[in-house]
Amino acid sequence: MPELPEVQTVANHIKPYVIGKYVLSINPIWDKVLDNFHHQDIKGRNKILDVTRRAKFIIINFEKFLIAVHLRMTGKLYVLEGTDIPKHTSAIMELESGEKLIFEDTRKFGRIYKYDDLMLINEKHGPEPLEDDFTSEWLLTNFKSRKRNIKALLLDQSFLSGLGNIYVDESLWASNIHPNSISCYIPKKKIIILHKNIREILSESIEQLGTTFISFTFLNGQSGNYSNELKIFGKQGAPCIKCSNTIEKIKVAGRGTHVCSKCQKIHK
User: Fold this and answer.
1) Catalytic residues
2) Are 211 and 217 in contact (CB under 8 A)?
3) Which of 55, 65, 92, 180 meets the CB 3.0–4.6 Å disulfide criterion with 161?
4) pLDDT (tens digit, 9 = 90+) per residue, 236-264?
């Protein structure tokens, strides 16, 4: 599933192509793609003011409402080059310019939502890890006030937005924290290091256009390059580049998790 860097990359890519243009309609090819509204709820010419990201949603801002696109497992959002509609298209936004904004989704898990503003999304999601309000002090306070498995906590979108399996594994390894650690027992020094690593890893991945595995591609087929920079995710059976210990894949919080048992200390 695309995480913060991949979703940000898609938002960054489509923004210059659609900002200032008018959407005439949103046509569902697959009925369930429009989650909380009907295509007839959007009428007339609606100008796109901006394209941003909140958590794992691509936010298309109009004057009186917004459209939130969640890519889920295999979703792609792009301006169509050419006239042939892709086989797995779930929805089409018709632009007055004649262009089409395509939402393509092979597995059909992706959804499109319509909201008046960001309030409902904000209520269900924690701070953005690359924004100013995500500080090491915030992370320290919120770790110490909870007694939760660290990986489960970082994956919890109501706690912190945008992180998924890849970037949690990478951030914990970079910080020498075992994913089975308990949040309130992790030392202050390591929490400060974790905060720094989360921000640096996400920022670097955005610069590399994210991580691409298997069927998730974007930018009209161009893949992200950060997969070449991964240090532990997907490296089970390989030697850890820090200590040469064999990287294991275990189950944590119901997710396949990559860990170096020598470098990453359990805090319980």
Assistant:
1) 2-3, 56, 255
2) no
3) 55
4) 999 999 999 999 999 999 999 999 999 99
